[in-house]
Structures are given as structure tokens and as C-alpha cells.
């Protein structure tokens, strides 16, 4: 059977050969993966397709802070070792967002609803008491709520693609509870069960977080 006829970890291709495993192990012991080691946060939420906003996909963000105004995140379909890299997201402060021209601003989405609704979570480590972790998570949300994100997905795993096909696709975020329907509701429920969290409980805990005004040029996928 050829590689094109096989599937491994959700992708077309043959399983890793012994030689590849040995080289992979050796490289991991001697090489310096500094950019990846700078990742300091794992965030989980859902992205919507900008040209099909009622179609969404779960997104695990692994983020690095370049500075106080810029973050960059690798987006994976799951938090597991065999996760597929499906996209990237850049997050910037409102201060930087306002310096962009109107055309550029329309490519970015807000995080206000994701934070305030409890949809955006920072999965906690096993063994740490929930109350302690949620305090840290809520503090992180105080910063994220005012950020704008620009996201492109390369791999449309939700439609069953076994390779990253076609052009990169601009993504957005949910901005209102009325946008959640059908599949999205079930996906959110399933996510909460897997991580042992409650979106509603997080919504209540974040009630005190100030809700910044969202720029009129953001979240264009819901304004078409």
C-alpha cells in the first residue's frame, strides 16, 4: 500500500518509520527549540469561517507574547501530541489596532464575547485545584478581552480534509449568543465535558471584567 493510500493521525501518509523515530528522538535531545519553548499559554475556543460564519471549528491556541501589545499563537485541532497544526493567530492591543488602515482592520476580530461568555478558556493542569486555576485564568482574560485577533486556517479538518488543501482561510470569532446554534452548541457542550469546565460558571466569574467597546471595523464576517 502506497503512502497516498494510508492515513496516520488524521493525515494522509504512512506511519513514522523506525529511522524517522530515531532521528526525531536524537534531534529533540540536542537541538534548541527556543521559539516553541517561549509558548506560555494554551487557550481553547472556537473559530468561525469568515465567509461561512455559521461554520465553526475548535481551536487550541499555543501562544507566545512578543511584547505587551503583540502575541502570536499556533493553532492545533487538539491538545494531543499528534495534533494537526491548522492555523495561526496574531493578537494585538486596541492601541495598535487603531493604527491600522480601514482595509486591514476588517481582517481582525474581537475577543470580548468569547471572554465574557466564558467560551474562551485556558485549560488547567491536572491536579491543580479548580479554584486556584480559575483565578489565574480569569486574570488572563482581563488582558485578552481587549485584544484583536487576525487568524488564518490552512487545514479544514472540520470537513474531513486529510491534508491542508487550498488557500488559507480567514477566520473570525463568535460575537453574540444568538450566533450559537445547532452544531456550535453541541461542540461547546462537548468541549466543556472533555475539559471538565462550565462555560456558564466562567461567564459568572468574569462578570466583573469591563467590556471594552469594539471598533466598528472589526468582526466583519457578521456584518455582511
Report the strand count: 9
Q: Strand percentage, roughly?
A: 15-25%
What distance lies between the first and last C-alpha atoms, to the nearest angstrom? Answer: 47 Å
* N-to-C series of helices and strands: EEHHEEEEHHEHHEEHH
The residue ranges in which pLDDT falls below 50 over 5 or more consecutive positions are none
Strand order of the largest sheet: 3-4-5-6-8-9
Give the biggest sheet. 6 strands, antiparallel, barrel
User: How many DSSP H or I helices?
Assistant: 8
Kindly provide the radius of gyration, computed on alpha-carbon positions and rounded to a whole number of angstroms: 19 Å
Question: Structural class of the secondary elements?
Answer: alpha+beta
The percent range for helix content is 25-40%
Shape field = globular
Q: Mean pLDDT across all residues, rounded?
A: 91
Can I get a quick summary?
The chain has 224 residues and is α+β, with helices and mostly antiparallel strands. Helix content is 29%, strand content 24%.
Question: Describe it for me?
Answer:
- Helices cover 29% and strands 24% of the residues.
- It has helices at 18-30, 34-37, 94-97, 102-105, 112-117, 130-144, 183-195, 199-205, and strands at 7-8, 11-12, 41-49, 52-65, 70-76, 85-92, 109-110, 148-153, 169-172.
- The protein has a six-stranded antiparallel beta barrel. A two-stranded antiparallel ribbon has the order 1-2.
- The chain is globular and about 55 Å long.
Amino acid at each position: 500500500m502506497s503512502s497516498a493510500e494510508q492515513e496516520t493521525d488524521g493525515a494522509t501518509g504512512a506511519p513514522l518509520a523506525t529511522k524517522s523515530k530515531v532521528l526525531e528522538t536524537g534531534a529533540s535531545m540536542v537541538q534548541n527549540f527556543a521559539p516553541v519553548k517561549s509558548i506560555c499559554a494554551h487557550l481553547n475556543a472556537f473559530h468561525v469561517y469568515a465567509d461561512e460564519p455559521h461554520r465553526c471549528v475548535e481551536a487550541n491556541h499555543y501562544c507566545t507574547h512578543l511584547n505587551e501589545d503583540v502575541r502570536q499563537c499556533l493553532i492545533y485541532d487538539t491538545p494531543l501530541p499528534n495534533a494537526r497544526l491548522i492555523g495561526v493567530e496574531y493578537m494585538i492591543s486596541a492601541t495598535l489596532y487603531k493604527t491600522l488602515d480601514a482595509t486591514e482592520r476588517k481582517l481582525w476580530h474581537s475577543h470580548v464575547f468569547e471572554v465574557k461568555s466564558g467560551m474562551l478558556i485556558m485549560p488547567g493542569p491536572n491536579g491543580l485545584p479548580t479554584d486556584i486555576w480559575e483565578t489565574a485564568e480569569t486574570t488572563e482574560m482581563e488582558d485578552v478581552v481587549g485584544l484583536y485577533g487576525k487568524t488564518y486556517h490552512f487545514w479544514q479538518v472540520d470537513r474531513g480534509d486529510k491534508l491542508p488543501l487550498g488557500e488559507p482561510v480567514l477566520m473570525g470569532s463568535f460575537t453574540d449568543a444568538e450566533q450559537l446554534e445547532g452544531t456550535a452548541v453541541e461542540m461547546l457542550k462537548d468541549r466543556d465535558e472533555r475539559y471538565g469546565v462550565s462555560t456558564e460558571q466562567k461567564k459568572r466569574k468574569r462578570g466583573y471584567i469591563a467590556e471594552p467597546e469594539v471598533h466598528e471595523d472589526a468582526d466583519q464576517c457578521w456584518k455582511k
